[in-house]
């Protein structure tokens, strides 16, 4: 069935639904470090169904982009995402199409392993280069209708998939304080995402690196410090993922499934001027969230890794909505390593058919070419697989750049 037309008077190809974002923004060759624009109180409460962030702190930036949730839909600057858009008779407005780009602030502080990530043209690893190239690619992602990406303070496996993790990639120190070099790189990325009208899904912890924190008190301090930093910067375009795949190999019990809701509640309890950050956590591929997380979260993160049958994606969304404690709230896949974008039914299409957002995960091969997780990463649309995803995102969202 052909796509439905947008609502009368709304054409995503002719008009950005994000205030202050124009097509010239996407073509910007120089990545800015300072934002332009004005801000009062984005995302103010308009009723009992809206969950949003609002800032009035003295240190805040002049933010242009604010994310909020109304029931099961995402809004940016109080306007529903992808307004009026349908794809194959499925509603797209209110979704948050995203990509897993967790290595945007990656570094390796282990001198025994840092050589693994050398750029082929220089023979050296360069964390600043990695972030610069990440920033340069962001407008291209946005121009294809991708409104969000996941980035983590402790990254992800720089080999795509791995059990042992001898490298030291953590923006969090052993006592729960935050590393200023990681924060500097992260700040530039969140700032530019704000300028582009993009949402950042910020992950705090990653299994295999969480054991670099000394104890549970350090984990709690890290949560408080990271959330406090977001407040200090006045960010309105960030939602929080406490940890990536809470059911996978975490050393600290509070990061594991039975207790991770305590950290979700900790983020929610941290407020300024009556405002807080939207927060949830994710599970490994094919897993449905447990009741404690469903009851505590503002949105539900699920992963499609290992799910080769798109019908299982459909089933996962349906089962998630049946978990006790569920109420109308967004469901997001923010990691799925399945593709087949040329087929009528794939995991991407299956997710949106159930009104769930979908996120592309391309693990890569440590060759500065393939994928978006194996370091060093080529962040541009330089492979057929990457191009296929972004073209599919454009088809589904109706963006034309």
Task: Please state the overall shape, judged from the principal axes of the Cα atoms.
Answer: globular
Oligomer: single chain
Largest sheet: 6 strands, parallel
Extended strand count: 15
Strand content: 5-15%
The CATH C-level name is Alpha Beta
How would you characterize this protein structure?
With 401 residues, this protein is of the alpha/beta class. It has a single domain, classed as Glycosidases (TIM Barrel, Alpha-Beta Barrel). The protein has helices at 23-26, 127-143, 180-196, 216-233, 260-269, 291-296, 310-320, 347-353, 384-397, and strands at 50-52, 67-70, 73-76, 79-80, 86-87, 90-91, 98-100, 148-152, 199-206, 238-244, 279-280, 282-285, 300-303, 331-335, 359-360. It has a 6-stranded parallel β-sheet. Strands 1-2-3-4 form a 4-stranded antiparallel β-sheet, with no helix packed on it. Strands 12-13-14 form a 3-stranded parallel β-sheet, with helices on one face. Helix 2 (127-143) packs parallel to helix 3 and helix 7 runs parallel beside helix 8. The longest helix is centred in the middle third of the chain and has 18 residues, at 216-233. The two termini are 24 Å apart. Mean pLDDT is 88; it is low at 1-48 and 54-59.
């Amino acid at each position: 069935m052909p796509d439905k037309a947008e609502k009368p008077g709304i054409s995503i190809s002719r008009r950005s639904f994000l205030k202050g974002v124009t097509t010239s923004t996407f073509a910007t060759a120089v990545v800015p470090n300072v934002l332009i624009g004005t801000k009062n109180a984005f995302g103010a409460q308009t009723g009992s169904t809206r969950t949003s962030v609002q800032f009035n702190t003295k240190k805040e930036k002049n933010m242009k982009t604010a994310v909020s949730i109304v029931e099961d839909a995402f809004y940016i600057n109080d306007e529903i995402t992808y307004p009026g858009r349908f794809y194959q008779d499925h509603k797209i407005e209110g979704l948050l199409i995203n990509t897993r780009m967790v290595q945007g602030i990656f570094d390796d502080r282990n001198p025994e392993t840092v050589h693994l990530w050398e750029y082929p043209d220089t023979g050296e690893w360069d964390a600043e280069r990695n972030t610069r190239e990440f920033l340069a690619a962001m407008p291209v992602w946005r121009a294809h209708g991708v409104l969000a990406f996941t980035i983590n303070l402790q990254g992800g496996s720089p080999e795509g998939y791995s059990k042992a993790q001898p490298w030291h990639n953590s923006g969090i120190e052993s006592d729960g304080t935050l590393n200023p070099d990681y924060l500097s790189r992260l700040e530039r990325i969140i700032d530019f995402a704000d300028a582009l009208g993009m949402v950042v899904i910020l992950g705090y912890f990653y299994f295999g690196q969480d054991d670099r924190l000394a104890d549970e008190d350090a984990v709690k301090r890290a949560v408080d410090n990271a959330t406090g930093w977001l407040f200090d910067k006045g960010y309105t375009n960030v939602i929080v993922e406490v940890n990536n795949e809470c059911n996978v190999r975490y050393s600290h019990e509070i990061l594991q499934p039975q207790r991770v809701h305590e950290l979700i509640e900790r983020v929610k309890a941290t407020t300024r001027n009556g405002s807080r950050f939207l927060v949830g956590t994710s599970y490994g591929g094919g897993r449905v969230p447990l009741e404690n997380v469903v009851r505590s979260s503002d949105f539900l993160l699920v992963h499609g890794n290992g799910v080769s049958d798109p019908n299982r994606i459909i089933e996962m969304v349906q089962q998630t909505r049946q978990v006790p404690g569920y109420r109308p709230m967004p469901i997001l896949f923010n990691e799925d390593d399945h593709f087949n974008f040329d087929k009528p039914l794939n995991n991407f299409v299956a997710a949106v058919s159930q009104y769930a957002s979908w996120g592309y995960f391309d693990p890569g091969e440590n060759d500065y070419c393939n994928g978006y997780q194996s370091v060093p990463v080529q962040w541009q649309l330089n492979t057929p697989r990457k191009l296929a995803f972004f073209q599919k995102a454009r088809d589904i969202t109706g963006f034309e750049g």
